[in-house]
């Protein structure tokens, strides 16, 4: 209710500040009996952690996760899973100056207006560092969804600044620091090098996809699957726009084009992006997000201080010239958390996908395959 | 939790189906002591109701709202406000044929997969008719926010299909059936006439704005103001994309351009769209949404029936060739409900905008004006 | 959040006032596909409705329920079930006098302090009349739990005032106006007749039981099954105490006596009242509640008015001399709503009772019988 | 939703197991700007911690609390306050034997039925050790309520086993290990010594009181203040009964006696226990709870193992012969958390106690004193 818990049935409560002793989260509602260890979570944390290339912030954080509770003899017990990540490379002296200033494009002013007090060290609570616990929680959701329904999540960068990045193959994504689906990223590297020299920052556009989706996930009026996806994505630091399926392109489409035809072997297209009436069709979830350029740049900007006096703000500290670069694993994690939440909601009201009333022996199982594809038989 | 209640502190529980006896909602959490009668709600309902021009569905519904509870001697009591709207012009015979078919682009298939049963009459629960109670609830929120903070909500259509509609003045919006901010809508009329002749439908793009926003509304990590706006907008029937402020244009912006400079007399620009770090800046909320073309068209479409057999679907019944036309008051209402929710949350945790700890006499009042503008003094 | 919705996954939103045009509720989260009609709900409403004997209020309300939504061709669709009950026998003139007075033992003063305004007609929102929609919602929960798990709910009166009522058989409960489990209620009738002559009121103690409980329902730390039962029972008008199992008697018990021994064929006793560690054991839920004497009596009482001036209050209108008499079906309904909520929560996190991870075909079914009894094999 | 978060606006998410590396909680929604340090929390933790007398478990835990987030330069920031308590004196070898057995009166069996897996070390999640983080969170709520409204919380033991403890003075409570309000506890010491020799355990009855309550806190139908108190108290380990005000004694009272008369200078009595219609009257909250005898005793008990085979269970490990002895600070904390939640809810919907619509300058302040007493002027 106060904006630090994501989800309800699979509820992730996030805590910490960028320069506090530690950050972390508590996952409540994880189904019991799933094998889980830090090794299931660390890889996704490593994908988003800082300091891995010259194109991202040079803050060096191992982001090593520790499971404090909820796992016994290697299996989830169904009780809260507390995850702790120590902060190790704070440099708070960098921020003393801006404690009384409002950085343009930052949350400094709004936190001041909301709370009357803020932790300015590294952006405090508003830092993108707080996405790390969500990536960790997302890894838990991903593992359960993969085992239960075969659902997989992946994302890539499609635009960096005004540069469109083509799509060659998902296989390239892990092989470059941009999560770009192309083999040759030399152009992107040159672009980023020039940007850093200009002491400026740029935006990015990402694509996030879920495959192997069960059909029937989502709610009728509110908490629609696409509404919750929009909520999750727009909640990621710096995101300013969200599209599902055809997105804004659907404005200029005709109904005869947009509406995805159906055939006995499946859908003929996916303008819907895997959601109709707020409920999953079983097709891939197709999501695109717009990420604004980093506000923290060393170019001087005109602003005011807490007394309303004009000041010139030069943001020191270590920052990402394009926050979009590290956002792919974050967006994947948030999408996984949304699907996880709705999978549990579906079990609550309707039983396992395809279950009838009353739940008949085996019925759920025999129906399940149906839930996992877009075929209608 | 099951997708039919919007909001938590100002919670609107929506019920009904397109062709049931009635639709309505229950508003829980409305502050007590506000003058309220049907006359405060009906005008917004009239703005969205069908049958008002040849460009929208010819279903004729008065959409007369009745207050069943929560108001005593003309003032809200703080207890639930139940609003009832009778359905009067159902023609369910139109839908008998598609009870066993899945209309492309519709929720027929997903409801079938989720619930194993659906009410096919007029789209049942998935009909845009269920937005009427939200418009009614939004009118209550609008009235309270106007009285408490001077906040106002308005919207207009900026694109219909591939046609861009310029912006001349808000004054034109009430004077044409498209909610277009231009004096001459003859081109739009001709466009819609041609579209109907082609038995097709088109999408639209809308802009929604809140002015007189208090600063400090929104939550830090989740339930960010922009995240909740995205959730509310994407939840409106047929919406496929949401932008806040610069939106997708921010991808190609530089940080030196995007970050809104601050001066003692206010912000220099509003690329943020009135939200920084998920919290309102006090500037106008600027939201844009993409609405897909209506799926219900009389052009035959290939689909399948509940047994997976191929069928040709021709959607009869009465439908909007562009659902975007009537969506403006809906989007305004949803935006008002989001702001209302966050205004109450802010009072809960931080007291009236600007209140300190402990709440000092008069302090809230002397601070309030500050909360209502983008100035910093 | 504002105190008018009960439950989360099976959420019942209650609205209306004692003398408004109508009262009702919206049930959100009911599993789809269950046969449901007014005939399933009316019998429980008839058990609690007023005017059925000389020992209860003479207000004559048919309490006829109408289903407005959520049911299609006789089956629940999984969308909100709106239930409406018209008020027909209001006599608001009876209450004009006490609009500015605070009746001792009533909510008049507290509503005034909370909201600064109240609907005084028949107690407005604080009237026990608002339990009718809960009885209706409880009937829906009862039907689902009976079909799904074989769970049954029943209650009886065990004390009226200082009179202890013995227990002979559940069979007697429907045969007398007191819900007393005894054949001869002449003593109770005489007791009530004398009480009315004395223009006074008395309290009562009720017992409520659930049989055929699945084991494993409830949460570990909060939302424990017994905690939610206490919440539900204490929330019933006039309830001042709640016990589970041995209740207050457990204070003087020894651990060697209280702890229910277990044998291969089941538990040796039920001091726990069917709950251990907040989770159901599969034994009967055993609940007892204390109901205070009706505050509305015609004996003059000293009080104050809204200006703080002393007044003598004589409560006119029609009231129950013992609200406990009609409370049995209410308590049953609230217990059913608690169990329903937890049954759906259990399905969400752990699947059907006994389901493993991942949910294996048939496993749920083969385990289910286990869930339905206290045997351990 | 999964039973590990208490409250909504002041939400405390609890994690950990008795023998895990650490336990703790995350407080979300704490008002900003309050001075807070570990020194504000530790004293209440010290009041409940084990090993402080021969009458309680000899497990020796310092229960030193660490604030991980949400406090900057000694003041709350309004963001989540994470509290961590390390476990230091686990002796898990004590529990190996009962990993496959169900201890009578314990949660072993129900956790097994619910989750299909449990952490048997020290009772795992079901251990009363998990009340420590709630005591810590309660200390934060107590501090805010004291500063904002002058509300204070205190409790004492009124019965231990069949021994009634008289009431002499609150001053005695801190001076003996039983939280008994009497000067001479030699009888209680003798009683407990005999009980330990008998290798048995006993129950207890506690009284918990809140003074300086604002009037108007609580909700109309559900989330009534007394309902939430019952929920909070019944959720404490081993609690089997809850009373508000006259409690079960009200069954035998007459309405002419029970209903608390009102005079210009205040209420004439407090049978209501400070709550009418679910909303606080401003009088003291009066709560009584029944605590069952500890289930962990060294006397052999008949039970079954996970395969349903009969076994003799002898519970080793270190346990409290009367869990009620350490329960007083726990009950105080839970009561404080309930009042805190409702104080924030009241601010959300109605503004500070007494605030009108629209909130007028100073009005809240001039009204506040009214909210803090039971006088009506």
From TrEMBL, chains A, B, C, D:
Residues where NADP(+) binds: 48, 54
Ranges where the record places region Disordered: 39-59
Protein name: Chorismate synthase
Catalytically driven reaction(s): 5-O-(1-carboxyvinyl)-3-phosphoshikimate = chorismate + phosphate
GO cellular component terms listed in the entry, alphabetical order: cytosol
GO annotation, biological process: amino acid biosynthetic process; aromatic amino acid family biosynthetic process; chorismate biosynthetic process
Top-level taxon: Bacteria
HAMAP family noted in UniProt: Chorismate_synth (MF_00300)
Organism: Pseudacidovorax intermedius
Record keywords: Amino-acid biosynthesis, Aromatic amino acid biosynthesis, FAD, Flavoprotein, FMN, Lyase, NADP
UniProt remark on cofactor binding: Reduced FMN (FMNH(2)).
